[in-house]
Amino acid sequence: MFVFLAGWTKAADVLFVAPLPAVSHYRMLEPLMLGLAERGHRVTVLSHYPQKRPVPNLTDVSLRGIVPAYELGFARWNLLEDAWDTFTHGAEHCSEIVSSEVVQRLLREDRRFDLVFLEIMDSDCYLGFPKRYSAPYVLFSSSALPAWIGDWIRNPTESAYVPEPFCRVGGRLDFLSRMRNVLCQGLYRFLNYLYNTRVAVDVVREHFHSDSDTLVDLKKNVSMIFVNSFHAFGPVRPMLPNVIEIGGIHIRDPEPIPEDIEKFLNESTEGVIVFSMGSMVKAHTLAPQKRDAFVKAFAGLRQRVLWKWESDLPDAPPNVMVVPWLPQSDVLGHPNVKLFLAHGGIHGVMEAVHHGVPLLGIPLYADQKGNLLNLEAAGAARLLELDEITPDSLSTAIGDMLDNGGYTENAKRLSRIMRDRPMPPLEQAIFWTEYILRNGAPASAAPLLRWYQHLLLDVFAACGLFCISIYFLFRYIKFFKDNVMKISFFRPPPSAVDDSKQGCNDSKRK
């Protein structure tokens, strides 16, 4: 599968730290774990989701049960709730995970790793792993690159036109969106420092036996950042060479769809709408009146609806099939699927784009609204807020999108862009992983600079001081010319004064 990859790399010991108890985050990392194991590398994985069957060259260290799995309500969160939850819960979970017996047992073992992968969205305390093993490390960002992570390597933020993933802005930013973008970035940076970085220092010092008083030096040593994004479903933005976009890495080759679902899809003459709110939002948390709105809206459609719903739905209309789980990407690839109704999570967005299916989004939290706004700006999606949902609004939005062929055309255009890449994202991630193992990390001077050096404030200050000095020098020269030289010019020389006095005396004698 990966024979074409250039260069030879000897088998290495690689550690993956996948600490978030969310299966969607794990699914982003899993293809690279399996791909490296298939290439002969010895892979150790710390996660909440161990493999169900043994995999050659892969060893699971299960974190299951240490912290509860993420389960979120079917409700819209505000921006402050998002930021607060990200960093406070992340710091708490990190402390519980690294202090657990299973992790401490691993740390006590006489092990070495050649490379460490970290998903570090919500806590910096996992930086203790590369510190413990004196190994280079690669960061995984499960969303488009947030500013507070890009700051580690001084990646350009460009707040004027690059939407911050969690700030609920997207597309082309107007004045208010740019203001929101800047203020929100500042908020996340502040909360990240207050509730993440400061707390993480104590955890690293205690559980990894580090004498560091700061994580700054550890952050400077990051080798690369793998980012779960791609410009087909987001803005084109500046990226340093050690920031690698691997959006779509979780999308695998199609597999057979379960027979009952495939039969439902094949027998639809008017097309199928797929409705799924992801793995973390649970159906039973949806308010009854909102559930009834979906049921009534779906009942009036001529299309069939495949609805991922974990609970019983006794009043489901005849054109609706309710399933507790579905192979989402494989289903979206079916030719009869005409529309995807979802919350706008990055994986669902990428799968919809990959298969050229337009998306009607109901954003709830995190980066979902930003993802949908970017896709809406590209003409392949439409937003509907949760509090706006009624049978009529839902039916109207679905009807407009299905009747307007432009949504499908734009979705297929984005699909062509996403597929038109030098190499698939998994192969790209493996290439750069082995590049680091062969050659070491690409060095950048940017992280070594202090903040005022990075902003060139010292250079501007020196230039300003020079200009001010020149200004005052010219003022002094002008003052000297206008005053001192003028006085000297009009004052008669001493000999002339003496001659004048002598002339006066001679005239008096006469």
UniProtKB/TrEMBL annotation:
Top-rank lineage group of the source organism: Eukaryota
Reactions performed catalytically: glucuronate acceptor + UDP-alpha-D-glucuronate = acceptor beta-D-glucuronoside + UDP + H(+)
A cellular-component GO term for this protein: endoplasmic reticulum
UniProt xrefs under Pfam families: UDPGT
Membrane topology listed for this record: Single-pass type I membrane protein; Single-pass membrane protein
PROSITE patterns: UDPGT
Subcellular location: Endomembrane system; Endoplasmic reticulum; Membrane
Main location as per UniProt: membrane
EC numbers, comma separated: 2.4.1.17
Transmembrane segments: 451-474
Keywords: Endoplasmic reticulum, Glycoprotein, Glycosyltransferase, Membrane, Transferase, Transmembrane, Transmembrane helix
GO molecular function: glucuronosyltransferase activity
Protein family: Belongs to the UDP-glycosyltransferase family.
Protein name: UDP-glucuronosyltransferase
Organism: Menopon gallinae
